[in-house]
Amino acid sequence: MKKLQTTNLFAILFMIVFAVVFAILFSRLMYIQASGEVDGVDLNRWAEKQRTASYTLPAERGQILDRSGMVLADNRPSYNLYAVIDEDYSQNSDEPLHVKNPDKTANKLAPVLDMEARRIMELIQNGKEKGLFQIEFGSNGEELTEKQKEEIEALDLPGIYFQENQKRYYPNDKFASHVIGFTQKEEQEKLKGAMGIEKSMNDQLMGEDGHISYEQDQYANKLLDPNEVLTQPKDGSNVYLTLDQKIQTFLEDAMSDINEQYKPKQMMAIVMNPKTGEVLAMSNRPTFNPNTRNNIDNWYNDIISYPFAPGSTMKIFTVGAAMDAGVYNGNEKYQSGSYKFMDGVRPVNDHNWGEGWGKITYDEGIRRSSNVAVSKLVWEKLGTEKFLEYLKRFDFDKKTGIDLSGEVAGEITYKWPSDKVRTAFGQSTTVTPIQLMKAATSVANDGKMMKPYVISKITDKNQDKVLKETKPEVVGEPIKKETAKRVRDILETVITGENGTGADYRLDDYSVAGKTGTAQLPDPENGGFLTGRENYIFSFLGMAPKDDPELMMYVAIKQPELENTEAGSEPVSYIFKSVMENSLHYLDISPDKKTEEMTVDPIKLSDYKGQSVESVKQTLTDQNVQVKVVGNGDKVKETIPQAGENILPESDIMILTNGDAQMPDLTGWSLREVLKFASFYDLKVEQMGNGYVTKQSTEPGTKVKEGSYLSVKLKPPNDGENEEPESENDGESQEDNENEEEAQEETG
């Protein structure tokens, strides 16, 4: 009985404890059901959060385009590959949605991904062992192209999926790469500009990401009532540049030719519209392909980031200051050769080892690039303080403010008397190429100095609305209109004068005003300056047509590999002439050089349509006319020039026949002849160089298709052959000798 009572007592106690616990739990459950909270956590919200998937909807990065709308930077889809290996994902599906056959999948993917099948099998098996839902394939499965995606889709492998990403693409490869720049992936796979316009305009280009959230089941399928919330992305803006694709192409091609032939350490070139400040072309060497970004040797845009003592191009502004101040008399004579402007200071020597040319006028001194001439102008005529005032008027003491990241200003070195004098001919003081170009706009633009810029406008993604547009800006008038004209006049004689240093820079159809320059290079090991005929930066700053310049260009080439018969001006002049001549023609600028007066009677061209090709050819040949036959027909369809026009003996005429139009052998044709031929068949001509045709893109005898493209490469007569050696016209040392080290400081 006692044992039974004890058992009953424990049973009662157990029942009481159970009842109390049950009451507590039931009360808690009722409370949770009534309030929907646990420890202050709203269970409804917690469950909703667990069911809700949230994704970023990336904004599309804006395009970068040239002035005409040609795309320079765009977006391309790239794909990351992943494989679903969880079998539960295929529930309620007639077709397998996961990787059903790992061995087959590995063997078929391996050649496309350039992976070993064994490695793919390991990834799948390891993922299954760890209970993963999906696996990825490392770098081999990232940034796949559209072609690779299509190849994989054609394999029809269950469980293989793609995630689409945005990749920046530059369709022209090395085209203006330092200007356009490139992007890199930052956090969350976001593209961010790392150089050039991509960097400086990153905020405008990148836009604002959107978001989407919805409730889903454990297999990532939307619920019937997903409570979807969607915020649409705001795509980035489009940025239009002032660059002109055609002119930039002229520049890139010419620089590539010179880079291959002369292998210089560095090259810089820029083409501007001096009336507006628009940069139409800009390029550097070394360069890089922004799509691959392999082996980038130079992360800086040297045109805006490389200050150096420019040499004699600085004389443009020294002469301009003296003329504007009223102290320049071009007919006044001075003693050239050497100038000891101050006791205890090494004298200034002219570039021909201080020998000079006797007593000459200042005008001749400028043509000859005399260091003594400009030194005397500053020290005796203008005064060093007045010269400093003009240097600041030309803004050589500040950045240009160009809308590119990374600009660095040069420095006016003006501490000692020798600094002040040597600044007159481009030593001591440093400037960047863009500072030179900005200052030179005042010479080309009748005294008005323009701010350089490369961003033309910013539009919305659909190009329906212009968000911002850059207008030309006058930032100073350092010299008067009359002074600018006088400077251009004397700079023209540098090109055309009997003793001018710029004879190599003459254009066929346009007058040029410009100045050569030769910058010394510091010797980092021994101090002082490097010696040797190649150890300079050879340069030229020119504008054309002279009376009303439409284009202005600066070219600088550092340490080209020259043959014994070659001058430093040769690679520089090749770039300047080919780019400037072609660009002016492309812009339809009327030539300003006067043609020679007719000294023979013209021939009025008869109407030869329908006549025999052979008889017409003989008739014209008898009249001393050069005949070119185009096509394989036997009857004349048309002549170029057409009937009724006047031609001169020795002129060229084309006979177009009634047969199929065939591409003639253009070798030896002038550009004018090529353009005449192309105009008849509406061909789009791209020319490289100047002179006469040496290569053509369409083979002779090929049927001519109207509206197609024709590329021709031209070279001057005897170009590259045994030409008579020329002196280095800007005062470059003509030979290495024992006095070279002393003469380095005086190089023009």
Automatic annotation (TrEMBL):
One of its GO terms (cellular component) is plasma membrane. The chain crosses the membrane at residues 9-31. Residues 693-748 are annotated as: Disordered. This is serine-type D-Ala-D-Ala carboxypeptidase. Keywords: Membrane, Transmembrane, Transmembrane helix. The lineage of its organism: Bacteria, Bacillati, Bacillota, Bacilli, Bacillales. It is found in: Membrane. Signal peptide: none annotated. Pfam families: PASTA, PBP_dimer, Transpeptidase. Residues 599-660, 661-716 form the PASTA domain. Residues 720-748 have a biased composition (Acidic residues). The keyword Ribonucleoprotein does not apply. The keyword Transmembrane helix applies. It comes from the Bacteria. Its EC number is 3.4.16.4.
